[in-house]
Structure formats: C-alpha cells, structure tokens
Amino acid sequence: MTKTLRALALTLTLLLASLAGCVAEDETNDETPVDEKPAFLDASDAGYTYASDVDNHRSLMLDLCDIKTAASESDWDTATQIYMNGKNAQKDDGSYRTLAGFAAASGKNHNYDAYYGVDGAIGGHIMQALNGDGDFAGTSDTVRYQGIAKLTANMGMVGYTIHELNAAVAKADAGNIDDDTGAPHNWDEGWAFFHGPDEHYGCSPAKVMEKRAADFGTADADGVAATFKAAEQAMVDGLAALQAGDEAGYDAATETVIKNIIITYSQATLKYTSKMDSTDSAEKYQAEGYAFWKTIEAYAAPYTDGCYNMAVHKVFMMGDIDASACDAFIWTNGSMDSTGTNDTCYNTVTHQVSTDVSNETECDGYAAMYFQDKYGAEKINEIVNLQDATKLGTSYDVAPHLAQVWAHYGITAADIGSMS
Questions:
Q1: For position 409, what pLDDT does the model report?
Q2: How far apart (Å, rounded) are the C-alpha atoms in residues 130 and 104?
Q3: pTM (2 d.p.)
C-alpha cells in the first residue's frame, strides 16, 4: 500500500513538472499580441493627408461622441468623467489626452482667455454646463444637454483648432518646418481637432459646416458646404506653404479657415435665435444659439462697437473703434450736390455714413460719451441669456449685430446665404 502511494505520488509529481514545463515553454515562445491600429486612423481625413503622426489627437474626436451620448441620457457624471479624464485618446505612457486638459489650460494660442478675462475660459463655459451652475444654473436637462454637447464639440474643438493653427504659424515664423516636430505637425493637429477621423466626422465642428450650409443654401449640388470646401482647401494649401516656408501662403490659409469658422457659427447663431419663438422648443434653441455664439464671440465681439445718437436714440454700428470715433461725425455735402447743400452725416475716422439721421442737428447727436463698447455682442448675449426666460417666445434677427463682423472678415451676403 505504501509503495503504491509512493508510486502514485511520484507519477503525479512528474506529471505536474511536465505540465509546468509546457506552460513555461508556451509563455516563452508566444509573442505578445500587438494591438492593430483602428481602421479610422488611416493616412488622411476627407481631402487632407497628414504629414505627421497625429493618431492620438484624432482619437480625441470619439470622446466628443461619447460625451454627447452620455449627456443625451442626462448622465452628467459619465460625461464629466470622459471630459476630465479621457477615454479614447490614450498616449504612449498610458495616460489619456483630454479635452479638459486643453480647455482649462492657460497660455494657449487663441483669443478666448483675453476676451473673457480669465484663464481657461473655454473650460469654464463647458464646466458650467457639466455642473449645471453659472449660466446653466437651474436650467432644464434639455438646455444642459445642448450646452454640453454643443460647447464641447464647438467652442472646445474650434478653440483647439485655432490654437494649433496659430502654433504652427509661430513655429514656421521661427523657421521650424520639420514635418514631425515643427509647424506641419501642429497644422495636422488642427485638422485632427476640426474634422477628426472620417468615421467620427458627425461629432466634429466640420459637420456643423455641412448642416448650416444646408440651412442657408450655401452647399453645392452634392451637399458639400462652401465653408467646408474653402476651409479644407486652405488646410491643404497651408500645409504645403508651411513645408515650403511660404509665410504669405500659410498666413492666408489661416485667415481663410478663421473666416469660414465665422461664417459657419454666424449662420448657426442666426438660425437658433430666429427659432426662439417656438411654442415648445424655445429654450432648446436658445441654448443652441448660446453655444454657437460662444464659439465665435471672442473673434466677433471686438467688431461690434457702436455710437449711440442722443437725437434719434439709435446705435450706429461701426466695427472696431474707440470712443473718439463717435466725435468724428460731420454734416457735409456727401452727395456732391452742385448747390453745395449739406446732406450727409459722415465719419471722418471710419469713413462711414450714418443712415439713421437726416439733418445736422441729428448728426450732432453723436458724441464720444455715448460710445457703446461691443454693443452688438452684448445685444446677442442678452438674447441667449439662459437665465432670462422673457427672451423665449420671440424670433430675433441678429444680422444687424453681426454686420460689421462680416465686413471685417470680408464676408458677403452670398457667403452667409438665406435661411430656408
């Protein structure tokens, strides 16, 4: 009996040793599986081919999709977690690229912080929607969802795009045009944040171009937005200009992208403020108007100054001026009437003619003390004030408040189109 047990024990020991050897051998010989790159991280997105590796940056667009999905279910915690900690854009060190990491940062190459007078201004707006405080205090789930979905995808990603384009220009101006580390790499990042992978295009600012062009009749027969065509071509041309060190070329490309962003978000602001007379969705449209306006406010507001006229009680929109311009109106013979009769209220600084007055007394109603800083922007902010329910139930035309913005950027009536 003892011999039998010893024999069995020896056999079992040898068997276990053999199995252990097999396991050890398998572990030694098997290669560690390598994750395949997702198909959406190919060489190009739409008509733009990347000069450098920006796969991680492109992957961030999926975070926007996931944030939108969570917010649509009023799952504010998940939306916030993705925004703050990231989900899809994992870096080589295991950490994640996050939208919060950019939006809350200071010293970025955009105008938002300077305009709002606070570091991380983009992040501040987004966090108010995520937390349900500030501008979003006491608002409905519908309004909060619109704020989260629209601010992250638009103010957040447009701000990111502008930062990268300006960073590219700065590097090129300094002579750094290396594809992998210089200006072209930052330019690539700009397209990654504005368009992203073709598969996730629906969550991008570029998609907004398509939607607004459909609204305003500014798309071609295939449904491609004029703004998208212009911006994409500018990105392609700008990359080539950066690689060639062509300063005039990349400066022009940057200006074209910004111009078409202004067109797109002007269209969006026009659309949703006009729909605020809805009987059942006014607050939703107000929230959308708010988010789209905030996307361009920092780039539009400086050109919405005006002069108030005490005689006719109207504000004449004049663009980017200082108070002294309001003192520069004269009553003169603008029509060049042969009798020498004065008939025109002309501004000798801006060379504009006020059509709000009809005689010298009324023309004298303009004065520096009545300068209206950012008047047009403030009027739009009053309309999209999420805390003011009295603004709901009325359709607004904000085109007069944006007219001088369009003049500054060389935007025509045809560029804006007509809302259908």
A1: 98
A2: 14
A3: 0.90
